[in-house]
Every structure is written in structure tokens, then in C-alpha cells.
């Protein structure tokens, strides 16, 4: 009886939890937990926390789980995948790339420069929205409503345009009325973008983060309570971009009618046109002002809304568009459609404006990069080596393109937008002209603006440059494989080496190192895009014609090459759009294809929509609050310990979630990362958020962190944080991969090169997990000794 009483009075042992977070490829709870029977403890079909059925009530029986932590899986793959219709988000790739440029600013304490950088990126993103809507106006208003419907030869083979054909005598046969009708297409596109942005924000990004710790001086950005909650800024940007799109359509309808009326219409009609043009300009300036002021407020949860001002701007823009349609539809019996719309020159203005914004962005980024960085966390010297966090003798980690990654990526976004709009316009003109080349003798169409034709024509040259760069990379890769063979054989000293096996392992290591060459490749592509884009604008401004027109008087070979480039460019863009959608659909259905394209996609959609509200939704604004809420609520309820185990992109989500925790909860959480791109990818391209000082600060705040890495991993790598006195560094590796060179008693079958996957199969994983668990605070609040933490892992 006494024994039973003592047993009942004894305190329950603290429960340990291993919260698993998968990476880019996505997986199922059954695969993560290695059990066919799982239950969902919290969440929904989009993202949820799962356990094995036998562990569902582990909190009620902690004494049964003393030997190992209870595994629990957080599955978030449906935030970025799902049905195949989401592949259409790939068509908004320029918006996503522009949004990335916002987060690539160099770290600096100069707030004025940082605000200017953010405003420049937002304005650049606004020009991309205007470019997309202007391209829709070019196709619907200019090519279809103005040129084709105004030409009897073009309408003859298009029965669907017969009701609006010039000279048919119908109500829609007047040019202004055709423009008003065609304006429904770009207006509907703008409304669709607004609806998608509003719907996806409500579904994915409206989750409130955990309370966390109060923000103070020197708090890292990712630890701010409002970092993952940009409600007001997204609402402001959505209103400004939607208004800009509607005003672009209104201007495309108003300017042709105003130009006609300027020649001899009645005074009241001219006055109405000028007043409408003035209203459009004022509203456009208001949209620009809202964009400049739509900076994120991350120090707290910004729940304030600007419904009144946002609705006023949207209502005024919609009213301006309706008034413009009515003004253009006014009866003008002497008006005929000839040539191109006068608004075609707007594409040159947009291209030049984007170039100016890129130049300003590059100047701001250079000033930020050269300014003193923000103060780092206090250094803790290692008495054995004389080094520590923030050690002056430790070389700084590399930053992509010397701080110019943001402007380079912004230029890439503009290049993608220009190529896509130019190619789509050229392809639409070719389709309407039924095989003839628009603008040439015998063609009923003048074709798209010359600058769009030039942009489409440079695509074959860009692809040729990429092919040359690819060949150079392949040659370099071959040489690197041969140089690594000696290192591979040295890693397996007691094996009988075979050339084929050695080359296989060396090739895996060489391919993994290609990731480190990405900045150089981006620099080459951006430089080529800038030169070719400038050449396209120059060609359109100086000659006004297409490449084929400019080369008409040149030798026959040059003229044929110019015309072939013009035709091939338009076909390549059309094929590229189809291939992009097909690749996106395959990526959502085929895990292997998803791993291939999912790297860029998941990096791009990890960041909140701070520059472009029409970019694909940010899954981290749902996943990070999910993880932080789960850890804080579970530790508060049970007093237990958590191993937060993140693979690949899951390690980035895990680190972001740990930043959001309050100090008491963080003391009960250990971080185990593997295949981790925090330094290799995020630290290099996003140094203000994952650079040396933020990661050193995270390690300083939580201590219990280990990172496993392999040389054969093309994505993950070492974090590069050195340890303090009595403690090893964060990194454990490189782990030996493959685990065995050839067959042996312990490895009777050939061991594969695992690269980025299956880290749990390495014996070091279990050892480091147990050592991390030993460092956490148990229920009594006294730290346990770090058993095995400083030991060297396998490989």
C-alpha cells in the first residue's frame, strides 16, 4: 500500500517531443513517422500536426516514453502544392521575383537608405503590374479592337469580330466603342488579380503569430512579433496595384479619343477629355504615393486597416475607367482606326522608367553594403582557440554579388516581364494575321509596338548565351570531378578503390558545389538582359521599326537572320508559357519534378508579400505561426522538452519559428537541422535576415542547436557558427556519404549517394538528437550535462 502511494505521489517524468518539419519535396505523415496509422492532432488538410496512433495520448503516459522523444510531424506541403490549377501561379513569376528583391537588401543601420530601398522596390513592382495590364490592353484594345477590327481583310477570317468590324454599320463599329468593349478584358484581368490576392491572403497569410517576446533595441527582424503578419501593408499595396491597373486601362481608352478630339471636336467634349485625363493623372499619383507609404510595420501586430482610403482609391479608379469608357464610346462619325494606338509608346516609357529604378536600387544597395552593419551580439570568446561569435579575425560570410543581388533580381524580374509581354503580343499578332508577319507589306496589321517586337527578338540570343554558359559550366564540372577523385579515395582509406565508384562519388560532390556558382550565373544573365534590353529600346527609339525592317537594307544573310530571330522569338515565348504551365502541373504531381523546380519556388514564396501584392501567397505566414503556437502551447501545458527537427526548407521554417518564441519557451526547445540552406542560400542572398550576425544571435539565445551536412548535398551545407568555451560548433560534418565505398559485412548491398535526403539513416543523427535532448531544461529547471555534444560525428 505504501509502495503504491509513493508511486502515485512521485512526479511524472518530463515528456520529450520531436517535432519533425519536412522540406521542399513534401511528404506524407505516414512517411515522416514511418507508420501507416497516423492521426491529426491539430490543423487541417492544408497544414497540420500528426502523430502515430499509438502516441496520440503520450501526454497522459509520459513514463512510457523515457527512452526516446515522441515523434510528431508537421506537414505543410499543401501550402505550396495541391491541385494542378495552382500551376497558373507560375505565370506570375515576375511578380514573385520582384518581391524577392525586397528581402535581398544588404544589412545596415542606416534606416533612411533602407526605407528608400524598400520604396524603390515597391515602385519597381508597381511598374510590373502596369506592364502586365498594358500588355493585356495591347492585345485586346490595340491588336484586336483597333487594328484587326478596323481592317476588313483581318475581320474577313474572324467571324467572332464581325459585329464590331469597321464599315459594318453596327453600333460597335466605331473605334471608340470597340475600345470601350475591349477594355473589359484588361479590366477583368485586374479584378482577377485583386480577387486572387485577397482570397489567398485570407486563406494562407491571415494567421496571427504567437505573442512571443517583446521587441527591443537590436531585436532581429525575424524575431519581431509582426514580421509574419503584414495585413495593412498588403491591403495598401493591393489597393494601389489594383487602382494602377484600372487607371492603365482608363488611359488606354482615353488617350486615343482625346487625340482625335484635339483635332476638331466640340469644346465641351475636349474639355471633358482633358478633365478625365487630369483625373487619371491625379489618381495615378495617389496610387504611387500609397505604394511609397506601404512599408511594413513589424514591431507589433499591425491590425490597423485603411478600408476607407483604400475603398475610396479603388472606387475613384473604377469610376474613372467607367467615365473613360463612356467618353470613348461617344458618337464620332469621322473617326477611323489607322496604324497603332497612340498609347503604344507607353512601353518605351515603362522600360526606361524600370531602368531608372534599377539604377537607383543599385545605388542604394551599394551604399547599404558599404555602410557599417548593425551591432552584433556580444562575442563569447573560445578560450581554446581564441575565436568566438563576432570574432574580428573570422572572415565574414560571402554576400551574393557584393550586395547587388536585389537590383540584379529586380532586373531579372523586369526582363522576364518584358520578354513575356513582348512574346505574347507578338504571338497574338501572328495569330490574328494568320501566318503573315505583322507590319510587312500585304499585312493588314501594323503589329505590336516596336519595342515589344525587339524584346521578343532578343530571346534567341539570350538562349544562345545561356547555352554557352551551360557548356562552360559542364566543362568546369568535368574538370572538378577529376580533381576530386583523390579526395574521395582518401575519405575511404581502407577500401579497394574502383575508378567507376570513385567517379560516381566525385561527380556527386562536384554537382553539389554548382550551387555556389549561382551568383556568377545570375550576374551573367542579368548583364546580358540589361545589354539586350537597352539595345531593344535603342532600336525601337532610333528606327521605330522591327528588327526585320531595320535589316531590310542589310545583306541578305543579316536580313534573314533578323527576320528569323523575330519569328523565332515570338514562337519561343508562346511555347515557353505552355511549357511553364506544364512544368508547374508536373511539379505538383511528380515529387521528383517538384524537387527540381521547387527550390526556387519555395524560396520565393517563403517571404511575405512586401513589394508585390499579386505575387504567389507566402506559406510561411501560415507555417511559422503554426509552429510557434504549437511549441508555446505544448510546453506551457506539459512542461516538456522539444527537439525541433527540420530538413531542408523545413530547417528555415524551424529557425524562423524559434526566433518567434519567448525566452522561457526557447529554453525548452533544441534545434536540429540537416540539409540546411540557412547560410549557403539564405545567408548569401538575404544577409539582412539570415546573415552572420542574425544566425550568431540565434545561437547565442538558444545554445542547443546542431546542424548535420554532407559534401554531396547541393542545397544544404554548414551553418558556420563557431562554438564557445567548452562547446563545439553548431555544425557536425561533413557526414560520410555514401556510408560505405563498397560491399562489406555491415553493408552487403551497395550504398547509394544520399545527397540531400535520408539524414536520419546516419548514426550521427540519433547521437546528436540524444545529446541535444540532454541539454534542455527538464521539469525541475536545472540543465543536464551535454553528453556527447562536443563529440565528432561520423565522417
From TrEMBL:
Give the source's domain of life in one word: Bacteria
Alphabetic keyword roster: Membrane, Transmembrane, Transmembrane helix
**Any keyword Membrane?**
yes
Q: Which InterPro entries match?
A: AB_hydrolase_fold (IPR029058)
Its name, as the record gives it, is: Integral membrane protein
Entry annotated with the keyword Transmembrane? yes
- Renumbered to this chain, region (Disordered) spans 375-400
Record field: transmembrane: 116-136, 179-196, 239-259, 271-292, 312-330, 346-369, 404-425, 458-477, 520-544, 564-584
Amino acid at each position: 500500500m505504501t509502495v503504491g502511494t509513493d508511486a502515485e505521489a512521485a512526479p511524472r517524468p518530463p515528456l520529450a517531443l520531436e517535432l519533425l518539419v519536412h522540406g521542399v519535396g513534401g511528404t506524407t505523415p505516414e512517411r515522416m513517422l514511418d507508420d501507416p496509422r497516423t492521426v491529426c492532432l491539430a490543423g487541417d488538410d492544408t497544414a497540420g500536426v500528426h502523430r502515430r496512433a499509438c502516441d496520440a495520448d503520450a501526454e497522459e503516459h509520459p513514463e512510457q516514453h523515457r527512452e526516446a522523444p515522441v515523434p510528431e510531424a508537421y506537414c505543410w506541403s499543401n501550402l505550396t502544392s495541391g491541385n494542378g490549377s495552382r500551376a497558373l501561379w507560375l505565370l506570375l513569376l515576375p511578380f514573385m521575383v520582384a518581391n524577392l528583391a525586397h528581402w535581398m537588401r544588404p544589412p545596415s543601420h542606416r534606416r533612411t537608405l533602407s526605407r528608400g530601398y524598400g520604396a524603390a522596390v515597391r515602385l519597381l513592382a508597381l511598374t510590373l503590374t502596369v506592364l502586365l495590364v498594358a500588355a493585356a490592353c495591347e492585345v485586346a484594345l490595340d491588336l484586336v479592337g483597333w487594328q484587326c477590327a478596323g481592317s476588313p481583310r483581318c475581320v474577313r477570317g474572324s467571324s467572332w469580330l464581325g459585329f464590331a468590324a469597321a464599315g459594318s454599320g453596327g453600333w460597335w463599329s466605331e473605334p471608340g466603342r470597340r475600345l470601350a468593349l475591349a477594355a473589359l478584358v484588361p479590366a477583368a484581368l485586374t479584378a482577377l488579380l485583386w480577387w486572387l490576392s485577397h482570397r489567398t491572403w485570407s486563406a494562407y497569410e491571415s494567421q496571427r503569430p504567437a505573442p512571443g517576446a517583446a521587441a527591443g533595441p537590436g531585436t532581429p527582424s525575424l524575431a519581431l512579433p509582426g514580421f509574419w503578419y503584414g495585413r495593412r501593408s498588403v491591403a495598401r499595396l493591393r489597393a494601389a496595384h489594383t487602382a494602377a491597373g484600372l487607371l492603365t486601362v482608363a488611359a488606354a481608352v482615353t488617350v486615343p479619343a482625346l487625340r482625335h478630339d484635339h483635332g476638331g471636336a466640340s469644346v465641351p467634349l475636349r474639355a471633358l477629355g482633358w478633365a478625365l485625363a487630369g483625373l487619371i493623372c491625379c489618381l495615378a499619383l495617389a496610387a504611387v504615393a500609397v505604394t511609397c507609404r506601404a512599408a511594413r510595420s513589424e514591431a507589433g501586430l499591425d491590425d490597423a486597416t485603411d478600408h476607407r482610403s483604400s475603398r475610396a482609391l479603388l472606387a475613384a479608379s473604377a469610376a474613372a475607367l467607367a467615365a473613360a469608357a463612356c467618353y470613348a464610346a461617344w458618337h464620332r462619325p469621322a473617326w477611323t482606326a489607322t496604324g497603332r494606338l497612340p498609347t503604344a509608346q507607353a512601353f518605351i516609357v515603362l522600360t526606361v522608367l524600370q531602368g531608372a529604378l534599377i539604377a537607383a536600387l543599385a545605388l542604394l544597395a551599394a551604399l547599404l553594403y558599404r555602410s557599417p552593419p548593425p551591432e552584433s551580439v556580444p562575442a563569447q570568446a573560445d578560450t581554446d582557440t581564441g575565436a568566438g561569435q563576432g570574432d574580428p579575425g573570422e572572415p565574414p560570410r560571402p554576400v551574393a554579388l557584393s550586395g547587388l543581388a536585389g537590383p540584379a533580381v529586380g532586373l531579372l524580374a523586369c526582363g522576364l516581364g518584358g520578354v513575356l509581354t513582348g512574346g505574347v503580343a507578338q504571338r497574338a499578332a501572328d495569330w490574328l494575321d494568320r501566318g503573315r508577319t505583322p507590319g510587312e507589306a500585304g499585312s493588314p496589321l501594323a503589329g505590336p509596338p516596336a519595342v515589344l517586337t525587339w524584346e521578343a527578338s532578343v530571346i534567341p540570343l539570350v538562349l544562345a548565351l545561356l547555352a554557352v554558359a551551360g557548356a562552360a559550366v559542364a566543362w568546369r564540372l568535368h574538370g572538378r570531378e577529376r580533381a576530386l577523385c583523390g579526395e574521395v579515395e582518401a575519405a575511404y582509406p581502407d577500401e579497394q578503390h574502383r575508378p567507376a565508384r570513385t567517379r560516381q562519388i566525385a561527380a556527386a560532390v562536384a554537382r553539389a558545389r554548382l550551387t555556389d556558382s549561382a551568383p556568377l550565373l545570375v550576374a551573367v544573365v542579368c548583364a546580358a538582359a540589361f545589354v539586350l534590353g537597352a539595345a531593344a529600346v535603342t532600336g525601337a527609339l532610333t528606327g521605330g521599326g522591327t528588327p526585320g525592317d531595320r535589316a531590310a537594307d542589310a545583306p541578305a544573310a543579316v536580313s534573314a537572320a533578323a527576320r528569323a530571330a523575330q519569328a523565332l522569338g515570338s514562337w519561343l515565348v508562346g511555347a515557353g508559357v505552355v511549357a511553364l504551365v506544364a512544368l508547374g502541373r508536373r511539379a505538383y504531381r511528380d515529387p521528383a519534378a517538384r524537387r527540381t523546380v521547387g527550390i526556387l519556388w519555395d524560396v520565393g514564396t517563403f517571404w511575405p508579400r512586401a513589394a508585390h501584392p499579386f505575387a504567389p501567397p507566402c506559406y510561411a505566414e501560415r507555417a511559422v505561426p503554426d509552429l510557434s503556437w504549437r511549441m508555446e502551447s505544448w510546453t506551457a501545458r506539459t512542461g516538456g522538452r522539444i527537439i525541433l527537427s527540420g530538413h531542408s526548407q523545413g530547417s528555415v521554417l524551424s529557425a524562423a519559428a524559434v526566433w518567434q518564441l519567448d525566452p522561457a519557451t526557447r529554453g525548452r526547445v533544441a534545434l536540429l537541422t540537416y540539409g540546411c540552406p540557412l547560410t549557403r542560400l539564405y545567408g548569401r542572398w538575404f544577409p539582412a535576415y539570415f546573415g552572420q550576425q542574425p544566425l550568431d544571435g540565434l545561437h547565442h539565445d538558444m545554445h542547443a542547436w546542431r546542424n548535420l551536412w554532407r559534401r554531396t548535398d547541393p542545397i544544404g551545407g554548414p551553418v558556420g557558427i563557431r562554438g564557445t568555451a567548452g562547446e563545439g560548433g553548431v555544425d557536425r560534418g561533413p557526414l560520410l556519404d555514401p556510408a560505405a565505398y563498397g560491399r562489406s559485412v555491415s553493408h552487403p548491398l551497395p550504398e547509394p549517394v544520399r545527397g540531400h535526403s535520408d539524414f536520419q539513416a546516419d548514426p550521427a543523427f540519433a547521437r546528436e538528437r540524444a545529446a541535444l535532448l540532454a541539454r534542455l531544461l527538464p521539469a525541475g529547471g536545472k540543465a543536464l550535462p551535454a553528453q556527447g555534444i562536443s563529440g565528432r560525428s561520423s565522417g
